[in-house]
Amino acid sequence: METQYWATKPIEEIAKTVEEKFDGYRKWLTDSGYRERIISTYNMFYGINEDGTLHLEKNDKNVSKINVNHFKSLVRRLHILVTENKLAFSARSKNSDSKSSIESDLARGIVEYYNDEKSMNSTLSESVLGALLMFEYYVYAPWDYTEGFELGVDGGEVIKSGDQKFVTLSPFDVAKNTVSRDNPWYVVREKVNKFNLAAQYPEFEVEIIAESLPVDTDGLMEYENVHSDDDSDYVYKFTLYHERTPSLPTGRQTEVCAGQVLADSELKYDKIPVFRISAGDMLQTVFKDSPAAEIVPLQEALNLLMSGTVTNNLNNAVQLLWSADPNLTTRKLSDGQTLVTSSTPPQALNLTGSAAENFKMIDLIKGDQQLLSGVSDVARGNPNASLKSGTSLAIILAQAIQYVSELQKNYAALASDISSCLVDNIKKFQTEEMTAYIVGASKKGTIKRFKAADLMDVQRITCSLGNPLMQSLAGRQETMQNWMQYGVMKDPKQILNFLSTGNLDAQIESDFSDALLIADENEMLRKGEKPIALVTDIHEEHIVKHNKLNSEKDIRENPTVGGNLNEHIQDHIDLMQTMDPVLAAAIRGQPLPPPQPVIDPNQPNPTIEGARMPDVPQGTPEQMADGYNEQLAEMPQEQVTEEQF
Questions:
Q1: Pairing of the two strands 87-93 and 458-465
Q2: Are 399 and 376 a contacting pair, CB within 8 Å?
Q3: In the 8-state DSSP scheme, what is residue 282?
Q4: 194: which residues sit within 8 A by CB, 6+ positions away?
Q5: N or C: which terminal CB in the chain sees fewer CB atoms within 10 Å?
């Protein structure tokens, strides 16, 4: 019986222990049947044969085996349902002051830059497909010291700044605790170039170069009969990550290759940089589940039925004749026809005909596959003709998404975890100034230089997914029409952008800038400073949000601060009262006021009992203007001169 926790073993023993831990996990995968279940789903999706190759099966030349892969189509649709919604990132900071808001906006821009330009988005998308096919999948996000830009050369070794790394790993490459869902440790297996690794660790060059890849019989495809010249260039590197626990207060991070400990230290990360995504859990076990598993048997049956039907047609494609006359003769005619002579009419033998039940069963299986997968006709791009409105299509699509809602929720959580890991890694490991192409909400990009200190107040990145209604053009059109009625969207450029992308970021960017300005001014007022009010400010918003400071006791009891606050509010009131109405309408996005009528002094207006009658307002309907003028003409009037008026 072990008396020492395996993860606390000394450096002389930990290499062997880590490799044994990984081998024990692979044995557990096989003994539990989990490996076989994963491989059956994976092989069905990619059409891999029982011998682990992609060769066409030719067991019997009289039998034609075909694979009509509806299973692959349905899984692809499930993948699209989960990942087609745009990821919307937001940063949460420790404080709510304007400086923290600026850091949060910078962090969001950095995450979006890595998502679009550094393969984070494709990594997340691949992980969802992996979770559907293999029940669980992993994203490995360590800080890679071999990437980034060059800082200098030390003893012939190039020193680089480092950069974030994203790698997807299957369940066969990440060993974990198999007893409880709590995972205090992971062992990550990576296939790396042995010569590059030896250059990084020259003290272990001989051992690393002598190592080779073992024959992998526990992976997805069997490689006993498949060899490549490149196999000799690669080895497996194992990395142990252990959380900070009572038994390991500082955690542990150990790299092992060829039975040697390449590096051993306390855990360098705030959290283990290994993140798992699954489509669902099997209750009371550590096993994961996936909707794809339910339709594998149906696909196997469909392949057999289709193979039998096709084989029957191919083997009996030439039509045969039968007649009771033993003297039946046939003779080829010159025009390519055949003359058949018989005392009784010959009959055609229809050997290609298959039972009607075959086709009914094929249709039944395809329907059951779609039903069990939760993928509707709308999600497959073939909606019922009765569904015409965008709202109806969106509702049906939303119902399909509900079936994979747990996977979609896990997808958003995975994006949040990886984004937070990215920001934490930059804060912890990046010592030099970095450069990123930050794209703002209005899609206008700028080159931004930043340091780790610029992100210190950012605590976590959260991610949310878009509304299914916005994923179809019909849904966006109907939503846009409703919003236009209430004045939410007015700018034609914003309308076109929304119809094309379903993105409202450009609409809210100016609102965010105004809110940031007001928050910055409130900070100045709290410090006793008085901000400058401009005529182009949105005075109503400034007055309301500045006035909230009057609810704070410290400000009410401080004559200097309170005086500056009220004076600043009065400045906004004065500017609002004297503001040009045309400028006010332009800033608020309202129609410009009609021009004031110009009075011609040489054309005095008629007056009634000394009061001058007004002109008809510009834009008045013609019939109303004529009626007004007719009534005015019938009234007794007296003409007055300009001096009298």
A1: antiparallel
A2: yes
A3: -
A4: 208, 209, 211, 233, 234, 235
A5: N
Q: Among candidates 311, 359, 354, 320, which has minimal Cα distance to 340?
A: 320
**Domain parsing of the chain, residue ranges:** 1-31+181-266, 33-171+273-307+356-471, 504-593, 599-645
Q: Are 334 and 369 in contact (CB under 8 A)?
A: no
Residue 226 is classified by DSSP as -
What is the per-residue burial (b if ≥16 Cβ within 10 Å, else e) of 266-280? ebebeebbbbbbbbb
Spatial CA neighbour of 220 closest among 409, 53, 99, 453: 53
Nearest alpha-carbon partner for 99 in 516, 542, 555, 378:
516
Angle, helices 70-83/296-315, rounded to nearest 10 degrees = 140
DSSP 306-359: HHHHHHHHHHT-S-EEE-S-TT-EEEE-TTS-EEEE-SS--EEE-TT---HHHH
Does residue 271 contact residue 421 with C-beta atoms inside 8 Å?
yes
CB 213 within 8 A of CB 235: yes
Report the length, in residues, of the chain: 645
Q: What is the pLDDT of residues 247-301, one digit of tens each?
A: 999 999 999 999 999 999 999 999 999 999 998 888 888 899 898 888 899 999 9
DSSP-derived pairing of the beta strands 274-278 and 320-322: unpaired
Is the pLDDT reported for residue 229 higher than 80? no
DSSP run (H or E) holding 122: helix 120-134
Q: Compute the distance between CA of residue 465 and CA of residue 278 in angstroms, rounded to an integer.
A: 17
Contacts of 451 (CB under 8 A, 6+ apart): 430, 432, 433, 434
User: From residue 308, how far is each of 72, 311, 353 by CA, in Å?
Assistant: 21, 5, 12
Q: What does the pLDDT look like over 327-362, one tens digit per residue?
A: 888 888 877 788 888 888 888 777 777 788 888 998
Q: Per residue in 92-105, pLDDT tens?
A: 887 766 667 777 87
Q: Is 317 left (phi over 0), alpha (psi -120 to 50) or beta?
A: alpha
